[in-house]
């Protein structure tokens, strides 16, 4: 039973209005005494052009940190990086128990052990179809099909109603490895009564129904069988179904499977431990590759997203110490580029083709299917669960807007347009956005976390565009110039548009400026620095058309 003043709240902190960094809070109770649970804690991949020097992004957990003592646990829906990848960096800010099914729990642990200095995390295993009680929340793990084993939706029951948080899911009656999505189970939940459906929006713009993993397995088997030489398959390391399909295809035509890449090795160990690779021959390490006949090997490689340090990129540059390809070999991209990674993936494909290697992608063959639902699958979910409220999540603005329109066409009157940081009251009464809480991104910059507003990132963008001029000037206490100024240019062209030597342009500007200042002004270091800075930027802009960043240092001798 709920008490007077109790409210059921949803606050997305990541993954709503973007792809990746999934993290959300559900709260129950009166405003000043709520208990909370968090669902997922994922990371996102940074675009090099937009965020130079930054590889990873995490959700800003400032709001969650404020309520840390009232957070009862973090519930993980499945083991993809955009749902678990922030745990190592961000969990120490919360230090609450994490709940996950066996495969996901073991994957998180294996990932942690591979990261030097990673914290010991309080992990608690939830059985398949398991339930747990956390304060006012009663949570049921509901198996769903996805592109990784043991993906789950969460039926979150409270005294004010049930929220069905789908996580990532699709319909697939023949998933090769992992769960299927049960119509019977979701119909049962719908009959019980679903207050709100918080649902994946990734593929809402695509008509029809996603093909099955078993169909991909059939096509992969054919492509491996009819290849005269080596076959390389690159896919997401976490896609155990795809890995199993490749192993079965290789076994059927007498080939050995070699796995290359740390992420692949980690997932293989966890999948084997959990029984998902039972009945398959041994998957061999990279060291076996060079001893196998060219027509008797299939290599599973990391790097399907164009990662520069992953196995496939190194092979494409002919830099891998153990794996090499030759003209006539076949590389299958059993994946699709995540938005932002297209250029890096395209560069690898071009390098392979230039080397005479055949490249097969999902543009021409059924070698990949998404783990997310298309419109027919989403219509079935709405039909089964009959929610009173729809909350589109897991998508960019286009996906969320299209999902909102789609949900209304399924007969849902109340559709909440959530974004990261919106605090939504789902019950009691009519659902509404109550306020906006702090949200955003945190960047992994080297070994440190920096706020999205940190000046380092925009300064790097500016340096990448205009370069920098560094000048050191020696002056004595009377304002006399001592020696020649030291000038260094980085990122500027050598010559201007009419052939001017730019370092000479800078030198002339510095000399004119210093000679034009009185001795009194030259005794003011800050005034000298500002005057030289302005003169350099103006002079360079005149011959180049850009104003560089300047660093002027006055040394008093």
Automatic annotation (TrEMBL):
It comes from the Bacteria. GO terms for molecular function: exonuclease activity; metal ion binding; RNA binding. SMART domains: Lactamase_B (SM00849). Keywords: Exonuclease, Hydrolase, Metal-binding, Nuclease, RNA-binding, Zinc. It holds the Pfam family RNase_J_C. The keyword Transport does not apply. Transmembrane segments: none annotated. Residues 20-220 form the Metallo-beta-lactamase domain. InterPro entries: Metallo-B-lactamas (IPR001279), RibonucZ/Hydroxyglut_hydro (IPR036866), RMMBL (IPR011108), RNase_J_2 (IPR042173), RNase_J_b_CASP (IPR055132), RNase_J_C (IPR041636). PANTHER family: RIBONUCLEASE J. This is Beta-lactamase. It comes from Methylobacterium aquaticum.
């Amino acid at each position: 039973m709920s008490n007077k003043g109790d409210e059921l709240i949803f606050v997305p902190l990541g993954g709503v209005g973007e792809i990746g960094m999934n993290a959300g809070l559900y709260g129950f109770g009166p405003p000043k005494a709520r208990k909370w649970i968090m669902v997922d804690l994922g990371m996102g991949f940074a675009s090099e052009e937009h965020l130079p020097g930054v590889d990873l992004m995490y959700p800003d957990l400032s709001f969650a940190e404020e309520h840390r003592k009232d957070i009862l646990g973090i519930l993980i829906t499945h083991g993809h990086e955009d749902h678990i990848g922030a745990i190592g960096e961000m969990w120490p800010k919360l230090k609450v128990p994490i709940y996950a099914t066996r495969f996901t729990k073991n994957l998180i642990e294996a990932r942690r052990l591979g990261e030097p200095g990673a914290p010991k995390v309080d992990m608690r295993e939830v059985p398949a179809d398991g339930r747990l009680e956390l304060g006012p929340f009663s949570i049921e793990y509901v198996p769903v099909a996805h592109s990784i084993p043991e993906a789950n939706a969460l039926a979150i029951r409270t005294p004010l109603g049930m929220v069905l948080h789908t996580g990532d899911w699709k319909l697939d009656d023949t998933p090769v490895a992992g769960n299927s999505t049960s119509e019977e189970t979701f119909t049962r939940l719908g009959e019980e009564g679903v207050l709100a459906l918080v649902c994946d929006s990734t593929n809402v713009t695509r008509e029809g129904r996603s093909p099955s993993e078993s169909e991909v397995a059939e096509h992969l088997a054919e492509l491996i069988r009819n290849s005269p030489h080596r076959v390389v398959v690159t896919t997401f390391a976490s896609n155990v179904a795809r890995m199993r399909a490749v192993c079965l295809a290789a076994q059927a035509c007498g080939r050995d499977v070699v796995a290359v890449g740390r992420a692949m090795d980690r997932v293989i160990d966890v999948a084997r431990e959990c029984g998902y690779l039972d009945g398959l021959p041994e998957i061999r390490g990279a060291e076996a590759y060079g001893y196998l006949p060219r027509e008797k090997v299939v290599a599973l490689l990391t790097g399907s997203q164009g990662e520069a340090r992953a196995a496939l990129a190194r092979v494409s540059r002919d830099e891998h110490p153990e794996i090499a390809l030759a003209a006539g070999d076949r590389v299958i991209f059993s994946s699709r580029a995540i938005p932002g990674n297209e250029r890096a993936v395209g560069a690898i494909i071009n390098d392979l083709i230039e080397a005479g290697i055949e490249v097969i992608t999902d543009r021409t063959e059924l070698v990949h299917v998404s783990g997310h639902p298309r419109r027919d699958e989403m219509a079935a979910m709405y039909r089964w669960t009959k929610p009173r409220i729809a909350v589109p999540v897991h998508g960019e603005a286009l996906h969320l807007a299209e999902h909102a329109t789609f949900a209304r066409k399924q007969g849902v009157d109340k559709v909440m347009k959530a974004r990261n940081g919106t605090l939504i009251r789902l019950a009691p009464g009519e659902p509404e956005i109550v306020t906006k809480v702090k949200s955003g991104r945190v960047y992994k910059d080297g070994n440190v976390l920096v706020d999205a507003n940190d000046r380092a990132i925009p300064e790097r963008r500016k340096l990448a565009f205009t370069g920098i001029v560094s000048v050191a000037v020696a002056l004595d206490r009377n304002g006399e110039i001592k020696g020649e100024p030291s000038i260094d240019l980085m990122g500027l062209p050598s010559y201007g548009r009419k052939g001017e030597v730019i370092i000479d342009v800078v030198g002339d500007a510095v000399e004119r400026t210093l000679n034009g200042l009185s001795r009194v002004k030259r005794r003011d270091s800050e005034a000298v620095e500002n005057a030289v800075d302005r003169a350099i930027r103006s002079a360079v802009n005149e011959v180049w058309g850009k104003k560089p960043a300047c660093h002027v240092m006055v040394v008093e001798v």
